[in-house]
């Protein structure tokens, strides 16, 4: 016998005026730095005597390599095919070949490498795989200042971020000793960034040794963000930044246990619109990550895979790109060093400069108003931790445009800084 449906008010549809169900963790997310900067500058009318120059956003502006463009055009037939989440074997082999040439590393393309749609989405997604929010006090440790994806990934995975401030006295290295034993014991994931954003600092081997020992003691995974690794300024056998994978092998950890490294073509090859990179490391975590990504729908387009193969297999365009950055930094850094506390970084395409009066937001607002140059206040890239905001009093300058434009911006910054000192 079919039961009769109740017509009582209790069985009626939900109140249409009631708010829809939503993940409450979304409310924990902080506004992105550029969103906060827009709010801080929305009432400013820049001086029309100067054309606008932005040094705020770290978006590569050098031309994309022709070989990448040619590979895209030659593989349009790939539009007719669904790609595999694991990527084509040819792509994984090209990545393995690059890792061998760049770092003298031998990784299994089938089990230790996975293509991703840019390092940003992968950095976020890994936290969703690693974090067990049912464990009390689930924690993700991040450097401070930091790439905001780390914090957002932690919060949406159900973890609490903890921060290790950068130390200007040690080349802006993160002070991991600020994280106490109780916090390390709750830590499930550690984000590191080397070369660092925004500082450009490269982690040396002893720092990796410390972190590997902590990982072994407490069982957390290390996510090593290395997207700036191919932009560096010095020559010699140790000039190129050390990879976490390279450090692991040198320290007797060839299985890369609990280590995943992230690398991208965006900065290396000037193709941020391609959204192409890879993760590599611990085969057990690569297997889990592949399972997650199969459901998440993260397969890379066949066109992008073909273009990525061309990019990973060529170093000439990378050397040319690096030479352009070296020339810009060599021209701009001495100019700014006359009026700001700034020095050539280890690597990356940012200058991390202290402003004369310590007011990074005020400096950015005044510079935009009087000279029409946009920069990013350092305090927006960091969180208050251990009694201070380690980004406060500094600005991040992205030298991504052509040399002439960067030099023009530098001269305007010099004029503004001298004006501030005169009026002080």
Give a brief description.
The chain is an alpha/beta fold and 424 residues long. 39% of the residues lie in helices and 14% in strands. The strands form three sheets. An eight-stranded mixed sheet has the order 2-9-8-7-6-3-4-5, with helices on both faces. A three-stranded antiparallel sheet has the order 10-13-12. It has a two-stranded parallel sheet with strand order 1-11.
Pick out its properties.
424 residues, alpha/beta, 8-stranded mixed sheet, 3-stranded antiparallel sheet, 14 helices, disordered N terminus
What's the main sheet like? 8 strands, mixed
Could you report the average pLDDT, rounded to the nearest whole number?
A: 95
Strand order of the largest sheet: 2-9-8-7-6-3-4-5
- Proportion of residues in β-strands: 5-15%
Structural class: alpha/beta
Give the helix tally.
14
Helicity level, as a percent range?
25-40%
Shape: globular
Instruction: Give the termini distance in whole angstroms.
Output: 89 Å
Low-confidence stretches: 1-11
Number of strands: 13
The SSE string, one letter per element, is: HEHHEHEHEEHEHEHEHEHHHEHEEEH
Our Rg estimate from Cα atoms comes to 23 Å
Overview of the molecule:
The chain is of the alpha/beta class. The chain is built from 14 helices and 13 strands. The chain has helices spanning 33-41, 66-74, 89-103, 119-130, 149-156, 181-186, 205-218, 244-250, 265-269, 283-296, 302-312, 316-337, 360-371, 403-423; strands at residues 53-54, 113-116, 139-144, 160-167, 173-174, 187-193, 221-225, 259-264, 277-281, 350-354, 373-374, 376-377, 394-398. The strands form 3 sheets. It has an 8-stranded mixed β-sheet with strand order 2-9-8-7-6-3-4-5, sandwiched between helices. Strand 6 (187-193), helix 7 (205-218) and strand 7 form a beta-alpha-beta unit. Helix 4 (119-130) packs parallel to helix 5. The radius of gyration is 23 Å and the shape is globular. Mean pLDDT is 95; it is low at 1-11.
């Amino acid at each position: 016998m079919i039961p009769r449906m109740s017509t009582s008010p209790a069985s009626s549809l939900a109140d249409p005026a009631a708010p829809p169900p939503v993940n409450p963790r979304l409310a924990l997310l902080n506004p992105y730095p550029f969103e906060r900067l827009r709010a801080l500058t929305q009432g400013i009318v820049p001086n029309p005597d100067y054309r606008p120059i932005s040094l705020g956003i770290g978006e590569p502006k050098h031309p994309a390599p022709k070989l990448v463009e040619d590979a895209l055009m030659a593989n349009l037939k790939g539009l007719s095919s669904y790609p595999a989440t694991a990527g084509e074997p040819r792509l994984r082999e090209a990545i393995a070949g690059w890792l061998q040439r760049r770092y003298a590393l031998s990784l299994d393309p089938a089990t230790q490498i996975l293509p991703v749609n840019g390092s940003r989405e992968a950095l976020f997604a890994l936290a969703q795989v690693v974090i067990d929010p049912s464990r009390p006090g689930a924690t993700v440790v991040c450097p401070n200042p930091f790439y905001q994806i780390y914090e957002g990934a932690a919060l949406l995975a159900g973890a609490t971020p903890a921060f290790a401030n950068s130390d200007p006295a040690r080349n802006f290295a993160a002070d991991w000793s600020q994280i106490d034993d109780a916090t390390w014991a709750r830590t499930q994931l550690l984000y590191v960034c080397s070369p660092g954003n925004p500082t450009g600092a490269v982690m040396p081997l002893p720092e990796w040794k410390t972190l590997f020992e902590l990982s072994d003691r407490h069982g957390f995974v290390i996510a090593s963000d290395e997207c700036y690794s191919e932009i560096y300024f010095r020559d010699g056998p140790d000039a190129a930044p050390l990879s976490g994978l390279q450090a692991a092998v040198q320290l007797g950890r060839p299985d890369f246990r609990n280590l995943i490294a992230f690398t991208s073509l965006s900065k290396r090859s000037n193709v941020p619109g391609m959204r192409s990179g890879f993760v590599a490391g611990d085969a057990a975590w690569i297997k889990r990550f592949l399972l997650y990504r199969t459901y998440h729908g993260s397969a890379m387009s066949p066109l992008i895979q073909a273009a990525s193969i061309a990019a990973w297999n060529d170093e000439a365009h990378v050397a040319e790109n690096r030479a352009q950055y070296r020339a810009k930094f060599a021209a701009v850094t001495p100019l700014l060093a006359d009026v700001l506390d700034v020095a050539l970084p280890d690597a990356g395409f940012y200058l991390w400069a202290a402003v004369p009066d310590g007011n990074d937001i005020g400096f950015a607002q005044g510079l935009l108003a009087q000279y029409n140059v946009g920069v990013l206040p350092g305090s927006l890239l960091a969180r208050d931790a251990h009694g201070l905001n380690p980004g406060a009093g500094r600005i991040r300058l992205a030298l991504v445009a052509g040399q002439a434009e960067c030099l023009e911006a530098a001269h305007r910054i010099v004029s503004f800084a001298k004006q501030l000192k005169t009026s002080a």
